[in-house]
Each structure stands twice: as structure tokens, then as C-alpha cells.
Design the sequence.
């Protein structure tokens, strides 16, 4: 897939920049031609000579030296893809506002090739509202992302912000060139549970791990789709090459889904809480001696599947999930009619399905029911992605 592809690698400032050299080795092993651009921050962690040696090409690091031959335009037009790895918080901010005061900024403005970012920064910087806003701006322009992961940082702390591993970045680059049946399509996927707060420390949730929804997002990306994954709180890694929107509650999930439209298809695999507490307590509810348990007044959460099925920007194909514990297919048929979606993927969750590695599903459509055997969730995802591609063809 990468043989003969021309990858322009922009290395910005991060202590994890050594992984960029490892990525170059993997790319060249698959036949890709790699050229490097080193930012001033990147040069603090990787030398120009090291990057040149590993790419086998001269490395550009000076806008004005390159301008003798209009270098930023030549590089922008040369690349089949531009990869920013690591992508520091500063580089994301510069990209979001379109700054062009260095060679990397000029290339990123001039290129028409797809762009992939691999963020790397301290967890506090990653979680900051400014970084989140910059990320949303970039992903809204079609910039793809891989990572960051969760783990130990250079500082004596850990959290989300760790640069994706070279193999993960390689998989995301492969996905950029996937000439599959879903190339040019945008698919929205929801995954995981939602957490509905009771008070500042307690919430209502379910046992969903997000494994099935995340596997579906990965399978769709492997077929060439541009995937937006709206995920509730999970502990599993992001699928490579997928734009992820993290949310907590059902109302946040609906807002993120509507913001992601238009889409060619929506796969609603999340286990959304049906109810929330009508009035969230501002302080932790106390268990007072001799007092009875508090009575929680419940309110209905928004119906995300039904909303997308009747939306003014309704995707061509809307697929819902039905997690049932009895008369699975009958309940799914009722849900299909009530929600107004096109298919229901029904499964029996009375056993070890939630959080487990396997699933047995029934595809319920207006034309009938298709029963699939118990399979690994990744295989369920691949079969469903293939079915989505056929429906959109």
C-alpha cells in the first residue's frame, strides 16, 4: 500500500521525537519515500543529521534557505501525504490559525495532500480547552489524527498525551491510502457507555467497554472511510486513523453527533443511558445516620438514534444497536419501527458480551433478519463494515 508513496514528515518539539525516526524506518521498509522537515522545537530533540541519515534525503529546517527555489511549494506539491509527528500543542495551535512564519507552517498551508497529526504533550496541555478547540478546528478541516495514548510521560506522571507508537502511526498512514469501497465517505460511529451524574462523585452508567463500537470504527477506516468516533468514557485505545470526540453524558453525545453531520452513514453502537437524574446535586450526597436513602427523580435522556434517523441532515444509512436480555429479535423489530432507522444490530447481553471479546448478533432490517454466529468483535465489525459499504455503493 505504501510502496512508492511520498511521505513528508514534519517533526515538531517533543521529547518523544525519537519515535519519528523509528516511524521513518517502518515507512521505508514498506517502500515509501520519506523527506523530513524539522521545526525549531523539533531540532531540540532530533538532529538534522540524524533525520537526514534515516530518511536518506536532505532535511529542510529553514524557510528562507528553502525559498531560493520556492521550497515550501515544491515540498507541498511533492508529498502524497503530510505527517506531523510529534505534533506539539504549539504546532496544533499554529496549524489551527494558519500561521506561516516557518517552513512547516508554509508547507501545511500550501499542501493539498491529506494531513495526519500525532499529538504529543503533557496531559494538562492535552486537556486544556484551547488545545481541544484547536483540535476540533483541524479535524473539521479534514485533518486526521492518531493518538495520543495513555501512559508514562517524560515528567514523573502519566495520563493522556503520550505520542502514538510507531506501529500505530504506520497503521494510520496506511489508512490514508486505503483505496477501499468507502473511500470518500464519512461515517459517524458512537461507542462506549455514557455517564449520567448524580452528584460530583457518583453517576449512572452501564457495563459497555466500547470494544464493539471501536472495532467498527477501525473496520470502516480500513475500508477507506473518514470516520468520526463519538465515544463515551472507555479505557481502550483510540482506533488508528479515526477522529475521536470524547463525551461523558448522553446530551453531550447527541451534541457531538449533530456537530459531526453531514455523514453518509451513522452507526450508533454506544450503550446510551436511557435516563438521567432530573436534578444533579451540586455537592456530594451524604449518608446521614438514621436517614433513609435519597429518592432520585429520573428524566428521559435524548434519543440519539431516533434524532439522527429524523434529522434534517439524516445520513443515507442509520444503524442502531439493541442490547437485549430476552426475545432479542422481537424487541429489535419493535425498535427498528419506533426509531425510524434502517437496520438494528441486536445482541443478547445477558452473558459476557458487555466487556467481552466476542459477540453474536442479528441484523434486523425491514426485509428480514440475518443471524450471525458468535464471532470475535473485530470480525463482527469487519462484516458490518462490508455490509455498510455494499449499502452505500
Sequence:
Amino acid at each position: 500500500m505504501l510502496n512508492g508513496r511520498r511521505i513528508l514528515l514534519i517533526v515538531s518539539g517533543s521529547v518523544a521525537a525519537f519515535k519519528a525516526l523509528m516511524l521513518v524506518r517502518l515507512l521505508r521498509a514498506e517502500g515509501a519515500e520519506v523527506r523530513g522537515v524539522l521545526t525549531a522545537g523539533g531540532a531540540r530533540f532530533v538532529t538534522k543529521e540524524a533525520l537526514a541519515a534515516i530518511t536518506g534525503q536532505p532535511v529542510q529546517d529553514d524557510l528562507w534557505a528553502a525559498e531560493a527555489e520556492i521550497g515550501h511549494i515544491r515540498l507541498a506539491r511533492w508529498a502524497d501525504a503530510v505527517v506531523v509527528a510529534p505534533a506539539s500543542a504549539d504546532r496544533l495551535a499554529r496549524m489551527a490559525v494558519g500561521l506561516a512564519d516557518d517552513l512547516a507552517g508554509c508547507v501545511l498551508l500550501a499542501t493539498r495532500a491529506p494531513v495526519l497529526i500525532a499529538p504529543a504533550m503533557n496531559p494538562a496541555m492535552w486537556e486544556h480547552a484551547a488545545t481541544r478547540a484547536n483540535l476540533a478546528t483541524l479535524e473539521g478541516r479534514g485533518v486526521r489524527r492518531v493518538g495520543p495514548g495513555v501512559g508514562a510521560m517524560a515528567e514523573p506522571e502519566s495520563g493522556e498525551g503520550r505520542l502514538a507508537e510507531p506501529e500505530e502511526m504506520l497503521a494510520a498512514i496506511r489508512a490514508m491510502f486505503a483505496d477501499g469501497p468507502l473511500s470518500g465517505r464519512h461515517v459517524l460511529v458512537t461507542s462506549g457507555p455514557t455517564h449520567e451524574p448524580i452528584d460530583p462523585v457518583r453517576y449512572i452508567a452501564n457495563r459497555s467497554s466500547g470494544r464493539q463500537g471501536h472495532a467498527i470504527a477501525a473496520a470502516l477506516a480500513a475500508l477507506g472511510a473518514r470516520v468520526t468516533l463519538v465515544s463515551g468514557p472507555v479505557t481502550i485505545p483510540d482506533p488508528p486513523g479515526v477522529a475521536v470526540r470524547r463525551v461523558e453524558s448522553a446530551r453531550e453525545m447527541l451534541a457531538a453527533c449533530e456537530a459531526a453531520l453531514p455523514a453518509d452513514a451513522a452507526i450508533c453502537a454506544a450503550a446510551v443511558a436511557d435516563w438521567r437524574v432530573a436534578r444533579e446535586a451540586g455537592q456530594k450526597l451524604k449518608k446521614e445516620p438514621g436517614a433513609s436513602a435519597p429518592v432520585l427523580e429520573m428524566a428521559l435522556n435524548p434519543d440519539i438514534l431516533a434524532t439522527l434517523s429524523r434529522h434534517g441532515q439524516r445520513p443515507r444509512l442509520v444503524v442502531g444497536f439493541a442490547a437485549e436480555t430476552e426475545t432479542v429479535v422481537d424487541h429489535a423489530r419493535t425498535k427498528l419501527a419506533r426509531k425510524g432507522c434502517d437496520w438494528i444490530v441486536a445482541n443478547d447481553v445477558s452473558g459476557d458480551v458487555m466487556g467481552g471479546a466476542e459477540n453474536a448478533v442479528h441484523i434486523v432490517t425491514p426485509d428480514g433478519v440475518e443471524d450471525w454466529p458468535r464471532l470475535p468483535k473485530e470480525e463482527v465489525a469487519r462484516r458490518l463494515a462490508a455490509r455498510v459499504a455494499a449499502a452505500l455503493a
